[in-house]
Write a structure and sequence with these properties.
345 residues; alpha+beta; Alpha-Beta Plaits; elongated
């Protein structure tokens, strides 16, 4: 029901409020059902006919979804509902039982702002359950990540050395570029690349460009090209060596360290920057929430920078829906060809 309501909200834009009442040890020991009956009676006084009540966790946590709440008044509604339900429960339960009940409120869509870009796992129990059912497949995927990234770091060590020297000689600044990116459920991590830009550059150039791309305001026209490109083609921040590294994707090699650490996977959606997520529509966020980010993915092997942002997200979500180890192997096998095709540039 939570998953269904999320999908409705993605279409309508009308938020919903999920309230969880964790009764602790009250309900498992409530053999006669009196405590549960009183909790449900109290909730009936605070809910509408269109609201949904049921088990969030069997015989332990009761959930209530208040649907179609006003987006403008979400904060006041949360406060009002917390106060109303608390007062009703206090009047219907003994002090001992009431003290054992904890109430939490969760609003979807979450308020992703400059300070917080985190998904709330409570609102995505279907994702959590799906990961449980795919436990062994996910373990095998992690094993493939460890083996693949370790092998790449060893076999490509001469390339790492050459690229590091070229970066160091081409311009002042560190060899590695470190940037905070967002992993699954918006968890931040330090993303590694070989530096391809001049040090101390202005990120606002990229920030404004990505804002237009995400909103669909960029027409894809590139100077001197006859194909649509949805990436910056004349970025003044890029060094000469950096331009070559980006065209060949050699700047991405240090991300094998991120994979080995468990922050990324070999295959998955590309990890976004926080300021990009602030521009996302509700449905765009699923590319960040559903799986761990990766070095390569369906987007890379099916168009890369030639694909509009919305279509890139659709490819990411298609990957999530159809995921299997065999699909990961296929994407990895197609990646080298994609890197050196015309669409890679």
């Amino acid at each position: 029901m939570i998953a269904l309501e999320r999908k409705r909200t993605e279409r309508s834009g009308q938020p919903f409020l999920l309230m969880l009442l964790d009764a602790g040890n009250c309900l498992p020991s409530d053999k006669t059902g009196k405590v549960l009956a009183r909790i449900l009676a109290a909730l009936s006084l605070s809910t509408r006919e269109t609201d949904v009540t049921g088990w969030y966790k069997e015989h332990s946590v009761v959930g209530v979804m208040f649907t179609d709440i006003s987006a403008e008044d979400r904060e006041s509604i949360v406060g009002t509902m917390m106060s109303r339900v608390s007062e009703t429960l206090r009047n219907n339960l003994s002090l001992e039982k009431f003290s054992q009940v904890s109430i939490s409120m969760h609003v979807f869509p979450e308020a992703w702002d400059q300070e917080s870009t985190h998904g709330n796992p409570t609102l995505y129990p279907d994702f959590v359950n799906r990961h449980r059912t795919q436990k062994f497949g996910r373990m095998a995927k992690r094993g493939m990540d460890i083996a693949g990234s370790a092998a790449a770091l060893v076999l490509l060590s001469p390339v790492f050395l050459v690229v590091a020297v070229l970066v160091k000689l081409s311009s002042e600044g560190p060899v590695l570029f470190r940037q905070e990116r967002l992993g699954q459920f918006g968890e931040p991590f330090t993303f590694l690349k070989f530096r391809s830009m001049y040090a101390n550059n202005d990120r606002k150039i990229h920030q404004e460009f990505m804002k237009r791309v995400i909103k669909g305001d960029h027409d894809g026209r590139a100077e001197g090209g006859n194909k649509s490109v949805y990436k910056m083609t004349n970025d003044p921040r890029i060094t000469k060596i950096g331009s070559i590294l980006r065209r060949t994707s050699l700047d991405e090699l240090p991300q094998f360290i991120n994979v080995l650490r468990g922050e990324m996977s070999l295959v998955g959606p590309r990890p976004p920057i926080a300021y990009e997520c602030h521009e996302y529509d509700i449905w765009h966020r699923r590319r960040v929430l559903e799986v761990k980010p990766g070095i390569t993915g369906l987007w890379q092997v099916r168009g890369r920078s030639r694909v509009r942002f919305d279509d890139m997200v659709r490819l990411d979500l298609q990957y999530v829906r159809t995921w299997s180890l065999w699909l990961d192997v296929q994407i990895l096998a197609q990646t080298p060809r994609a890197l050196f095709s015309d669409d890679a540039f």
